[in-house]
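#structure-requests
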Amino acid sequence: MRQFQLHHILCKSAWEALKFQDKEGYFPKGHNGPWGDADTNVRTTAHWPLTTFKAYHITGEKIFLSATQKACDYLIRKKQRPYGYTFCCRTNETGKNMSNGLIGQAWAIEPLILIGKSLNQREYLEVAQKIVLLHKYNMKHHAWNYLEINGKILGINQALNQQIWFAALSLTIGKILGDSKLIKCARDFFNNLPCLISFFEEKGLISHTFVGHHSIYRNMIKELIGKKNKGAVEHDKRYLLSQGYLSFILYGLAMAYEYHSEETFWKDDRLKAMISDSIEYIVKDFPFGCGEKTGYRWCYNPTGIEMAYVLQVFKEYLRLESAENHIALFLSKQFEFYYDFEKNMLSKNTMDPNILSARLYEAVRLKNYNISISH
């Protein structure tokens, strides 16, 4: 067995990433993993500065701080929002929206919020605030609309993971800047979240699709997913998405809890049970698809890193037993199967090395765990 410290891995990857950063500040783009989208450089350039900033805090090396600031400065340039509205996260080659829904915008503002707060960079924070305010919140359906890059409203985004991440970051920037509107909308979302979630067939497997709070919609979705038809392509796709994004949903909730554990909505027993059931669903099926080279788990959404963070954050909230042991197991699998120790990149066994490597940033919220890797 080989032993590594997580912070050592993060710094080694950050150092390698400096070699790939363009003088304008951006990092090599990917293609949104299994979705095969023609991405712009916005996404990877939003992910990497969180890793380089962590490396700066660990080492004190100013070169990491410089790389961090160059990446954030690239993001706030007007050409990344060509019409003055949302970030352009992908081209229109596949006919999809170019903003990449709510999640494209959430990823783009994440470093601006966290790094902006830490470095007291008001411009970073104000760009993030502007982006969130552009998205109209629907109080009736307790969800955000999403926008095209030209400002066109495209309706309520139905991916639950995107709503959760957007809500967590909305609440964060709202509190930092004292924006009561953003705080009110985010609290409304989390207060109503237990009524918005549907489980897909199995207890703990949250449906990937956001279905609305009215009982008529919930009954419709239950009819659609209640019985598995092996020939139903749509059913199978929804099932794969629900499994593939479950740890990502939980990571978004963990992020919201870490930053805002004082909020009263965490006292809701329904929310607590939903989180507990979902964690148990993944842990019981450990390693939960590890080894897959295509799909949404591990090789795109870094499941091992995400579950380590989920267990770290929620162990007290849910009174989880053996959380530390499970954290070690999830991290060891993520790095054993997907980290290239010669290239110092999370780029092995994946259809999109640039994206998975950049998503190492999700580990910056973790403690400095020891990681055991089999020879």
